[in-house]
Amino acid sequence: MRVLVVGGGIGGLALGVALARRGIAFEIVERRSHYGDEGAGIVLGGNVMAAMERLGIADAIRAAGHPVGQAIIADAQGRKLQETPFRVEGFPPAIAIHRTLLLEILRGALPGPVRLDTPFDKADVAGFELVVGADGIRSTVRRMVCGDVEPRFAGYTCWRFVVDGHFSEDAWEHWGRGRRFGVVPIGKQRTYCFLTDNAARRAPDPWKDLAQLKERFAEFASPARDALAAVRSLDPLLHNDIEDCLAPRWSRPASTDAPAIVLIGDAAHAVTPNLGQGAGLAIEDGVALAELVATSPLGDALAKFEQLRRPRAEWIWKQSWLFGRAGQIESGILRSVRDTLVAHTPERITRASMGRIVDMPGVPT
Q1: How many CB atoms within 10 Å of residue 209?
Q2: What is the DSSP letter of 255?
Q3: Where exactly are the structural domains of the chain?
Q4: pLDDT in tens, 5-39
Q5: Among positive and negative, which fits the CA dihedral 196, 202, 203, 209?
Q6: Is 20 helix (H, G, I), strand (E, B) or coil?
Q7: What angle in degrees, to the nearest 10, is found between the helix axes of 10-21 and 278-295?
Q8: 12, HSE (Cβ side, Cα atoms, 13 Å)
Q9: Residues of the chain with pLDDT under 70
Q10: 110: nearest Cα among 163, 35, 168
Q11: What's the fold here for domain 2-153+242-358?
């Protein structure tokens, strides 16, 4: 079997590593002309690190990143509302890492290079039995499976950046009035931050200079305040509207003149980033799909893949949307109610939720 992977992001690269470990021939094509500085961080939960153990690259990730013990939700003044351990029994510790380093590690585990500057419409599918769409939320491959599927706007936008400095051992998320501030240590004395703000779709930045940015988020206490003080320029900020997307169908069978097609990662189930599982789902997909195509007839493998993976993706998709909406509340009364509910949620419920988050059907570990 030969597999064409469309998309050289985290999900496509993870799939390539998994296929290589199963002895399956593949090629990865990527639209971008080169890999540069991704400029942001990512948290790999225990479930993702278990998948990385399967791929043989967990040690490299641990060496390049930073272990994260707890996820802390706090109000703007820094009062802790909830502390949830990232560590779940039976899973490795969570690791936060710079995305650039993660991509380098994944590419380094491949047996050959990614074919760059090659969008799907320039790729030759002849000779491949399976095409995998790992090409993101605006997937070109997805149109061939289920037509146009418009991403859903969440009602807020996000800026991501990395600053020098180490401000906490834990991952913090401060909730303010219609905006949030996240602070995550990623190792090498660097910290990944994200800012969210309620806004219209494709709205321009609501500031003209660095001083105005800092004024807009001045309500937040440390560690957010310390991280904000470390921002020296607007240049590193990556700005994206928050969207999600769930494809109604994930695969198309082979025909006499075309290979089978399957979608993974954001092409199949883009989720808002509120639970830190978007890239994780894509990595899980890659490991699960490689295992299935290596052990089952192709048609059965693709049917089984969606049967196993869709319920989990839909649950994460829904929960992440709700979590984000709660974090973006503007009303003072509603925020007070929200904060009280979050602060008094029993630990058994948060632990049960974390257990559900790391459950990975179809992923061998």
Answers
A1: 9
A2: B
A3: 2-153+242-358
A4: 999 999 999 999 999 999 999 999 999 999 998 87
A5: positive
A6: helix
A7: 30
A8: 27
A9: none
A10: 35
A11: FAD/NAD(P)-binding domain (3.50.50)
